[in-house]
TrEMBL record:
Domain N-acetyltransferase: 16-172
CDD domains (alphabetical): NAT_SF
PROSITE patterns (UniProt xref): GNAT
Lineage summary: Bacteria, Pseudomonadati, Pseudomonadota, Gammaproteobacteria, Oceanospirillales
Protein name: Acetyltransferase
Pfam families named among the record's database cross-references: Acetyltransf_8
Amino acid sequence: METDPINTEVNAKRRLRLRPATPEDRPLLERWDTEPHVVAANPNDKWEWQTELAQPTDWRQQFIAEREGRAIGFIQILDPARDESGYWGEVGDGLRAIDIWIGEPDELGKGYGTTMMQLALAHCFADPRVSAVLIDPLADNRRAQRFYERLGFRFVERRHLGNDLCCIYRLERSDWLA
Ligand SMILES: CC(C)(COP(=O)(O)OP(=O)(O)OC[C@H]1O[C@@H](n2cnc3c(N)ncnc32)[C@H](O)[C@@H]1OP(=O)(O)O)[C@@H](O)C(=O)NCCC(=O)NCCS
């Protein structure tokens, strides 16, 4: 990931783009952190926006999804082997991990999350060194799991990550291409 530019990814058909998150997005992200559907998906996650947005790293990219200029969601792509928090434990090279949420409640369930994931996955697999992408929905977030399954992710295992019991899913490059 260190040689990748921070790209702006665009889906013209759905008029949706992913642009890099900046320190100016902090109030927006903190507001989204209080939305019940976001809390339900990440009840134990404490995002340190002030630090994270101000200190870009070469192993993590954070994007705001905008539709026709309105910010509607957030997506993060990171290299789990280089994640300095050690959240993912022992993982190999050539992987990416994604976190995603639609922040605005009135934009849920309209297909934008699917488009965001397609843009993010295309971005991940544009790097030929990336062999697979990981995600970690809570074990009881069945709706999110179905969302990932429809995108081609396959269930790997249930695992405790941080304070949560999660279901680890993985999308192989070959499944993405298919
Ligand atoms: C998961 C999420 C990113 C999907 O984006 P979206 O634009 O709402 O989804 P799409 O319209 O593209 O696809 C619809 C599917 O999304 C999932 N979904 C919709 N609302 C959801 C919600 N509140 N919580 C979890 N999944 C949801 C469901 O699988 C839904 O299909 P269904 O109606 O048949 O159950 C979005 O719903 C969201 O941010 N949910 C809350 C936070 C979350 O669960 N994030 C994932 C954590 S791993």
